[in-house]
Amino acid sequence: MPDVSIVTQDSANPAYIHAIVFVDELQRAGIRNIVICPGSRSTPLAMAFAAQTAIRTWTHVDERSAAFFGLGMAKQLRKPVALLCTSGTAAANFLPALVEATLSHVPLLVLTADRPHELRDNGAPQSINQNRLYGTYAKWFVEVALPEATDAALRYIRTTADRAVATAQAIPAGPVHLNFPFREPLTPEPIPEQPLPPVEQRDLVAWRGRPGNAPYIEVHNAPLGVPENVTIGSILRMVIETQRGLFIVGPNDDPTLIEPLVRLARYLGYPILADPLSQLRCGVHNRSIVLTSYDAFLRIDSFVESVQPELIMRFGAMPTSKPLLLYLKRYASSPLVVIDGNSGWEEPTQLASQLIHAEPTTLCQDLFNALEQHQTSEERPAVASQSWLSLWQDTDKITQQALLNTIYNFKEIFEGRVCSELANLFQDGTTLYIGNSMPIRDLDTFFWSSKQRMRIIGNRGANGIDGIISSALGASSVAGQHEPTVLVLGDLSFFHDLNGLLAARLHKLNLTIILINNDGGGIFSFLPQAAHSEHFEQLFGTPTGLDFRLVVEMYGGRFKRVDNWEFFHRAVDQGLHTDGLDVIEIPAERTSNVKMHRQLWEAVKKAIMKTE
To answer: Pairing mode, if any, of strands 108-114 and 81-85?
Structure first.
């Protein structure tokens, strides 16, 4: 194994720490052979491989022959073999073997060194365009970030190593290409102008790796979505030993997941932190352990310090909430298991210890059945103590009450109140389409729970503000006769897709739009850019000063501007029970909106601290 004593060193070349950690993770992921071609730019990786005793090094002078040598080895082993070369045409000579590997489904891990970005496309020697050099003959391509010796960078490079090996082996197997830019110096000497963080401030898991030579993230690919017994057994062993567990559920549009997931969480005594698009916040299922105000109370340090989890299981993509992400980072050492039914990689946190590609509904059912079969005193799962679950539930209730009390005292229109009011206005069968930027974040914090059967959806793939009106109208076009569709979005999102309103007129569609108009990009007022007032409005606030009434009426819609909540209730009710297009505009002010949000966080803090 390589010398991972770097965690206790005070100085070193960050590129070498990056390379040693990457190679260490490759051997944890199962790489046992590397074919290396000589070159200068690849020096950090070559020396890291040479020091790694768990990986055998095979040297070949000619890149074309080297790649075919690795191909034959991988065929015989039925396991991935790594290739390494320097920059320029050396990398191009790997192509014939990669073509063969793709067509015959042979797993190869291709590592090419490269010049840094400032030496590309400007005549620097031995420099060609290596980005996606192998085109469709690489299953996956990564332009690896420039080396850094930071916790975040080392979590990233370990995750990338595990993902690359797993992707090369996943059916159909094939080559994966990682392109590594390196700056000089290429030898191990420390770089004075790039000091390392103090030893006591380093995340030991990121620097040294997980205990027991385990991979940083273990990947399970379930055939046809059905989790294997070994996968269920692995999770079973974890939950049997865990009392302080937590479920996190991101965006989900599969109604069959709700009942088995809730049943499993109740059996284990794990709270569920449910994203607003999880479909768990509304409906007739048991919602007693479904928590919905965590975006507010996870901002309170004293609470976060008291709830260190022993196991976290996340279903689907990462939820919207930033405080939740910071909570996960705070307890990065806690095992995080991600269950995702898609074949992609829904893991932006780089904190997961396991990624399971399996159908979540089936996994929940199989795990519940396995738990019921382990009923002996020795094997019965360590169901979470009532105090653990009650702490989360009580905090959720206290937070909601503190938010409500404060919101009702605001004299100005508060944008977040739109979401808390809607929970009481919607009828059974309503579809809520939520816009990005501030609306989805306010929905996360202020739309808590409803017994009504509702579907909440949004465009959270790329999280853009474009096309929201058209998307909501598309959803409306196939909704049932008595199933209204409501869209909540901001004024910039509305402006981006004004032409989309034509569909409502052409196809006689029913849609109620709640337009929160703060004349610009409200979310930027919460970001660090707001501190730079000189150019803030021009570059980030971007007010338009538009009167949307005229364009709504041009498209045959009804427009109402409301300035109090009683009028808002009547307008929404009319929109829900009237055919056609209704646009309800709520005027808001960005600066006061930020102020009111901060007053709410302070109110939550005081309410929680009273109970401690």
So the answer is: parallel
Domain 5-189 architecture: 3-Layer(aba) Sandwich (3.40)
How deeply is 480 buried, as exposed, middle or buried, from its count of CB atoms within 10 A (0-12, 13-18, 19+)? exposed
| Contact (CB, 8 A) for 240 and 376 | no
Q: Which residues of 131-147 are buried (b: 16+ CB within 10 A; e: fewer)?
A: eebbeebbbbbeebeeb
Closest CA to 353 of 327, 333, 373, 330: 333
Task: Please name the helix (run of DSSP H) or strand (run of DSSP E) that holds residue 513, with its range, or none.
Answer: strand 511-517
Q: Which superfamily does 217-395 belong to? A: TPP-binding domain (3.40.50.1220)
Residue 84 has pLDDT above 90, yes or no: yes
Question: b/e map of 215-246 (b: 16 or more CB within 10 Å)?
Answer: bbbbbbbbeebebeeebbebbbebbbebbbbb
28-57, pLDDT tens digit by residue? Answer: 999 999 999 999 999 999 999 999 999 999
Element (H, E) at 28: helix 14-28
Write out pLDDT tens, residues 232-283: 988 998 998 888 999 999 999 999 999 999 999 999 999 999 999 999 999 9
Q: What are the boundaries of each domain within the chain?
A: 5-189, 217-395, 413-588
Give the neighbor-by-neighbor strand order of the sheet with 354-357: 218-221, 354-357, 336-340, 311-315, 245-249, 272-274, 290-291
| Nearest residue to 274 (alpha-carbon basis) of 298, 295, 291, 299 | 291
Residues in Cβ contact with 567 at an 8 Å cutoff, skipping those fewer than 6 apart: 560
Query: CA 84: distance to chain centroid?
Result: 31
Please name which of 489, 536, 271 lies closest in space to residue 394, comparing C-alpha atoms: 271
Q: Write down the pTM of the prediction.
A: 0.90
DSSP string covering 121-133: SSS-TT----TTT
Distance CA 251, CA 339 (A): 12
What's the chain's length in residues? 612
pLDDT above 90: percentage of residues in the chain: 81
Give 368: exposed, middle or buried? Use CB within 10 Å, 0-12, 13-18, 19+.
Answer: middle
| Correct CATH for 413-588 of 3.30.365.10, 2.60.40.10, 3.40.50.970, 3.30.360.10 | 3.40.50.970
Tokens of 157: 């490079």
